[in-house]
Write a structure and sequence with these properties.
The chain is built from nine helices and 16 strands. The protein is α/β, with parallel strands linked by helices. The strands form three sheets. Strands 8-11-12-7-13-14-15-16 form an eight-stranded mixed β-sheet. Strands 3-2-1-4-5-6 form a six-stranded parallel β-sheet, sandwiched between helices.
Length: about 375
């Protein structure tokens, strides 16, 4: 098999820039992938942030101004992991330069920015663009998705998709850019965590109607750079209620995005139940998928039962990892990249792919309607 080398650059060498750089070093774990990415360049306005990349031999270019990467004809694909207020201009520039773009969520700070990025995608079709959302690449999430697609659920009753963090329970956690509207966006935690909750529902065709949002700002002040308290104006927890349709049947679809869900560390949950079956998966128990059905219990007869299935290690793209072994966050990043680069070559087939620009823009429509609902109907209690 011919394996094509694709040169990758990263803009933003912070938390996610490093996570992706590390994941790409594990590429040989993938079996028969048509592409071999090579991380050759990194850009960060903070020179010191790029020191970490010195341990990756293939990184030969380090710049503090990203336009230098756009004019570098050796670079094929750029992963951008920067603050939300910078997404629109950098994404548009990467797209206009004809580079492939794996963009971080929320794909622009608001709906207007997302539409502007989408317009660039349509104007420059040579740039293959997808948005980051790795959690659905957990094998358990794939099992849950395939269960719903199989039709085993019957007439749907309800579904829930959640993404939960808890470190903001600590009131002394510094303000940071993710906790300021000017950098994170008016949608607050929805901008940070919402894409994780919508990737699978939107891929199932569950386009929410009558969106209603419950927004909470629980900690209104946090320590700023000098330690004194500053306003923390972002929404910390948001529960969205909506109607969606499955096989034409309307059902309640709830998503939860929370920075203050006590005890939860990056917990991604998906649950759908119907009259004939049901499925539940949470990364809290990353091996375990629960399926519902009516079963024969010896000596007892027919009973309703949630049964547990271990999901193993295999996700969208096969790996050398033994199928009984466990899967983790960094594996999901590797799988997301395997999907992105295969799809960019037109070789993903019917496998699950990354969030499309249209899906990403749709999340901002949902967040806007949720905010409007909170403002115009009942509004926050206070
Ligand atoms: N997919 C996920 O699971 C996940 C997790 C965390 C964050 N994110 C997303 O990733 C993005 C970045 O978040 P992070 O946590 O890595 O942030 P971060 O603050 O850790 O890193 C951002 C980096 O960008 C650099 N930077 C700022 N302006 C720049 C510019 N103009 N050019 C080049 N570099 C610049 C900063 O110096 C910093 O090193 C955000 O969109 C965030 O929502 C995704």
């Amino acid at each position: 098999m011919t394996v094509k080398t694709v040169n990758v650059a990263i803009i933003g060498g912070g938390l996610m820039g490093r996570e992706v750089a590390a994941a790409l070093q594990r590429w040989p774990a993938l079996i028969d992938h048509p592409v071999r990415p090579q991380l050759t360049a990194v850009c960060d306005i903070n020179e010191a942030a790029m020191d970490w990349f010195d341990q990756i031999d293939s990184v030969t270019t380090k710049v503090t101004e990203y336009h230098a990467l756009l004019s570098d004809s050796s670079i094929d694909v750029i992963y951008v992991a920067v603050r939300h207020d910078l997404h629109e201009s950098i994404y548009r520039d990467v797209i206009a330069a004809g580079k492939g773009l794996l963009a971080e969520k929320p794909f622009g700070i608001d709906e207007s920015a997302a539409k502007s990025i989408l317009a660039a995608v349509e104007e420059y079709p040579d740039s293959f663009v997808r948005c980051s959302s790795e959690m659905p690449f957990f094998p358990g999430a794939q099992m849950a998705l395939n269960y719903v697609l199989s039709g085993a659920i019957g007439t749907i009753i309800e579904a829930r998709s959640s993404f939960l963090h808890s470190s903001d329970l600590d009131r002394t956690k510094p303000l940071g850019w993710k906790r300021q509207n000017q950098f994170c966006g008016e949608a607050g935690v929805l901008n940070d965590l919402g894409m994780h909750t919508w990737h699978v529902p939107l891929r199932l065709g569950w386009v929410p109607e009558q969106v209603f949002g419950l927004f909470q700002n629980i900690v209104p002040e946090r320590p700023g750079p000098d330690g004194s308290l500053m306003e923390c104006d972002t929404w910390e927890n948001v529960v969205l209620h909506s109607w969606a349709r499955h096989d034409g049947v309307p059902f309640p679809l709830t998503t939860e995005t929370k920075r203050i869900a006590p005890g939860e560390k990056n917990t991604w949950v998906f649950e759908a139940v119907g009259m004939d079956g049901g499925v539940r998966f949470s990364t809290k128990n990353p091996k375990s998928v629960e399926v519902f059905g009516v079963i024969d219990v010896p000596g007892q007869g027919r009973e309703q039962a949630w049964q547990q299935v271990d999901s193993g290690s295999q996700s969208v793209w096969p790996t050398v990892t033994g199928p009984i072994f466990e899967f983790g966050f960094s594996d999901s990043i590797l799988q997301m990249w395997a999907a992105y680069l295969a799809e960019r070559e037109g070789l993903l087939g019917d496998r699950f792919g990354c969030v499309t620009p249209q899906e990403a823009a749709e999340t901002h429509r949902i967040y806007r309607e949720a905010r409007e609902s909170a403002a115009s109907r009942l509004g926050p209690i206070g």
